[in-house]
Amino acid sequence: xxxxxxxxxxxxxxxxxxxxxxxxxxxxxxxxxxxxxxxxxxxxxxxxxxxxxxxxxxxxxxxxxxxxxxxxxxxxxxxxxxxxxxxxxxxxxxxxxxxxxxxxxxxxxxxxxxxxxxxxxxxxxxxxxxxxxxxxxxxxxxxxxxxxxxxxxxxxxxxxxxxxxxxxxxxxxxxxxxxxxxxxxxxxxxxxxxxxxxxxxxxxxxxxxxxxxxxxxxxxxxxxxxxxxxxxxxxxxxxxxxxxxxxxxxxxxxxxxxxxxx
Length: 262
Prior knowledge:
This protein is α/β, with parallel strands linked by helices. 33% of the residues lie in helices and 23% in strands. Helix 1 (12-18) packs across helix 8 (244-261).
């Protein structure tokens, strides 16, 4: 059962995860630490979230990661991530990684031979739709409608879904806030969390996200873990907060509890 988190209240589940010996805090980015914005590359984490992440990453036996559907290159840009950062990254829903000790890990060996043709067809398919945008991704593409004119989103998704079911039926399809995404790789947030957990040998994981794709990860969490859902929607998470600003407060409360427990 999902409970609403009240600012200023240390929920028992939050207190418990703060006491785990090796803690991994894995965070989606868009809609979680950053509000959704019309231009995807202009997204930035709220200052309060940045401060809380910094506090957590500085604590002993505490590891912070961003786990996003964004390509690793784009994720590094929007998180303002530099080579000396202690923050781990999982991009492309867990098909790309960056670790402080080993750097980037990306396997491009499975790239389809007709990728360029597929993208050209997709771009032509939505070219006449006002505000519907093609977003290139390392292992596929997204179709964004955050800036679409009224009525254009429904047309775009109907077209794209029909075309994709015939042209690229084996590609993985994902839905999101004003988004349809298609990838020739099968990894999801479940794979991302498993790899991150293993890499840092975490005894407990707090995972937070706001979208349908994050539920792949939420459903893998165990009794020693905690899921946090940002915003409305069906979820397997234990806690819910209203928006990224409220979630920044939760991260700050976690940092307080973690510091006190050590």
